[in-house]
Amino acid sequence: MSALADLDRRVADCRACPRLVEWREEVARTKRAAFADWTYWGRAVPGFGPADAKLLIIGLAPAAHGANRTGRMFTGDRSGDVLYRALYDVGLASRPTAVSADDGLTLRGVRITSPVHCAPPENKPTPAERDTCRPWLVEELRLLRPTVRAAVVLGAFGWQAALPAFAAAGWDIPRPRPPFGHGTRVRLAGLDLFGCFHVSQRNTFTGKLTPEMLRDVLREAAGAAGLPTEG
């Protein structure tokens, strides 16, 4: 087993945050009517993508009836529909939709992860839960460091959680820490960090984040990572 695969296995077995464990398992038991015939994952959700990824995408946390149901990052919900469509459009994903962990979707040089690996109530992890989960992201960053050259962080919460993780994994973060903003680009030693509005329905339904805006950030980040794009 590779070091990253072992990390993913240990993440999935994590029970460190009682509130999150209780919530994710309750959701998996009660389900949503539309998914009554599903067996929910109901565990912490590990990262998704190759161990030699050049581009990393960092979200917030699994959705209760998305990744908490399917067991794969951004899979099975509206946010994932937007993200994977954009990745496909720029040539970084093999298909434009993500419906289940066994749907054949693959990523090209990209890995997707999050600073919190369990679905939180109301999509709002506490600062303590974020900090408890941080060592998983730090370890993942250390394992990816030989190949990763760019990272896209989705949303202000992800940005605030990611910067300390990058610092703990060995990157020098500017002081004062750069603020989050859509289109922000921070050049670190050997890695370019990009900010992007989160692909939440609140942002995509209101037009705060459009498909074109998302594709533009992904193309720029892929270019910084040395990945070819399309479209």
Describe this structure in words.
The chain has eight helices and five strands, in the order ααβααβαβαββαα. It is α/β, with parallel strands linked by helices. A five-stranded mixed β-sheet has the order 2-1-3-5-4, sandwiched between helices. The longest helix is centred in the middle third of the chain and has 18 residues, at 127-144. It is globular and about 45 Å long. 47% of the residues are buried. The mean pLDDT is 97.
What fraction, in percent, of the residue positions are helical? 25-40%
Poorly predicted segments: none
For the report, how would you describe the main beta sheet?
A: 5 strands, mixed
**Proportion of residues in extended strands:** 5-15%
Features:
single chain; Uracil-DNA_glycosylase-like; UDG_Type-4/5; iron-sulfur; globular
Topology, element by element:
Blueprint (H helix, E strand, L loop, with lengths): L2 H10 L5 H13 L24 E4 L8 H4 L7 H12 L20 E4 L13 H18 L5 E5 H14 L16 E4 L2 E6 L4 H6 L4 H15 L6
Parallel strand pairs: 1-2, 1-3, 3-5
Antiparallel strand pairs: 4-5
Helix pairs in contact: 1-5, 4-8, 5-6
